[in-house]
Amino acid sequence: MLPGMNAAMLHDGGRGGALFLAVAQSDSPYITIYDWRTGAPVKVADPATLPSSAIYVSWSPDGRYLAVTRNSSPYITIYDWQTGGPVKISDPATLPAGAGRGAAWSPDGRYLAVGHRLSPYITIYDWQTGSPVKISNPGTLPAGDSGFGNSVGWSPDGRYLAVAHVNSPYVTIYDWNTGSPVKISNPWTLPTGNGLSASWSPDGRYLAVTSANTSGANILIYDWQTGSPVYSHGVTLSGNQVYSSVWSPDGRYLAVAHSSSPFVTIYDWQTGSPVKISDPGTLPTVTGNSVDWSPDGRYLAVACNGSPYITIYDWQTGSPVKISNPGTLPTGAATGAAWAIR
C-alpha cells in the first residue's frame, strides 16, 4: 500500500474508479479481463468482437481504451470502454507493418506507440481528433534497417519514448521536446543482447532496459539525473532472458519477469540501488512473460506460460503473498498483463 492510502481506497486506486486487470493469452478468447470491484478478480464478459490473437495489452491512462497487439493482421485491436464494456473501434487507417509486440500510451493519453515486426518497427498514433491517426515515422528508426520493436515506454513527463528492440543498439530513445520524435545519442553503455523491455521509474529518474542476454547483465538501469541516460546499475539474472520489467507506483520496487525459476524477481530500491528481496512463498509455475503493478501498488500480476497462466500477489502485508487464482483462468499461455482504473 502506498503512503497516504487507506483500505477504502485500495480497490479503486484512490481516485473513484474500479480496478481492472487485462490479460493477453495464446488461445481464444485471447484476452481475459477481470473486474476487482468485489475485492477479488471476477471475469467480465468477452468483447463481442474478439481478436484472433493477442501478444500484449495496454490501457489508456484514463482507462477508456484497451489496446491489444496481435500476431495477425490488423496487428492492433482497440476497445472503447465508454459504455462500461469493451466495444471494438474501427481499425486505424494505417496499420502497423507487422506482428505487434509492445504498446504504450503517452501519459496524457494523446499518443499510442506500438512496437512491431517489419519496418518502421514502431508506429505511433495521435488521438487528438478522438481516433488513432498515424504520425510520420521518426527520422531515425529503431535498429536501423532490421529488427523489430519488442517494447515501448514513455517517461512520466511524456518527453522521452524508449524502444527496446532486436539488433544493436538494442535500445533507442526519442526526445519529443520539439513535438515529434527525435532520436537522442545512444547511451555509452548498451545492452549486449536483444532489448526486451523498457520501463521508467515513476519519478522519471531511472530507465530499466531488460534483454535476452543470458551470460551477463540482462537488466541495465540508466540514471537520467543529468538529463541524459548514464548507466548506473547492471543486474545479472544468470541464464535468463528477462522479458518484462515494471516499477511499483511509489518507485520503491522493480519487478522483472524472466525465463528461469523463480520466474519473477523483485528488487528493493530503498537504499538507492537494487537489492533483491526474498522470493514469494508461492512462485509462478513457469516462464514469466509480463509483469505489472496495480495503480495503487497493492497487487503484482505475473503473466506466465503455464497454468494458472496468471499469478497475482497481494502486498498489503509489505511483502508478496499469492492470492487465490481467479475462478475463471486464462485459456492459454499469458503473454501480457496490464492494470487500469476506470
Quaternary structure: single chain
How much helix, percentage-wise, in residues? under 10%
Count of distinct strands: 28
Strand content: 35-45%
Order of helices and strands: EEEEEEEEEEEEEEEEEEEEEEEEEEEE
Given as residue ranges, the uncertain stretches (5+ residues, pLDDT < 50) are 1-15
Biggest sheet details: 4 strands, antiparallel
Give the C-alpha Rg: 18 Å
Keywords:
single chain, mainly beta, four-stranded antiparallel sheet, 28 strands, 40% strand, globular
Topology record:
Layout: E1 19-25, E2 31-35, E3 42-43, E4 56-59, E5 65-69, E6 76-80, E7 87-88, E8 100-105, E9 111-116, E10 122-126, E11 133-134, E12 149-154, E13 160-165, E14 171-175, E15 182-183, E16 195-200, E17 206-211, E18 219-223, E19 230-235, E20 242-247, E21 253-258, E22 264-268, E23 275-276, E24 288-293, E25 299-304, E26 310-314, E27 321-322, E28 334-341
Report on this model:
With 342 residues, the chain is an all-beta fold. 0% of the residues lie in helices and 40% in strands. It contains no helices and 28 strands. It has strands spanning 19-25, 31-35, 42-43, 56-59, 65-69, 76-80, 87-88, 100-105, 111-116, 122-126, 133-134, 149-154, 160-165, 171-175, 182-183, 195-200, 206-211, 219-223, 230-235, 242-247, 253-258, 264-268, 275-276, 288-293, 299-304, 310-314, 321-322, 334-341. Strands 3-2-1-28 form a 4-stranded antiparallel sheet, with no helix packed on it. The protein has a 4-stranded antiparallel sheet with strand order 4-5-6-7, with no helix packed on it. Mean pLDDT is 92; it is low at 1-15.
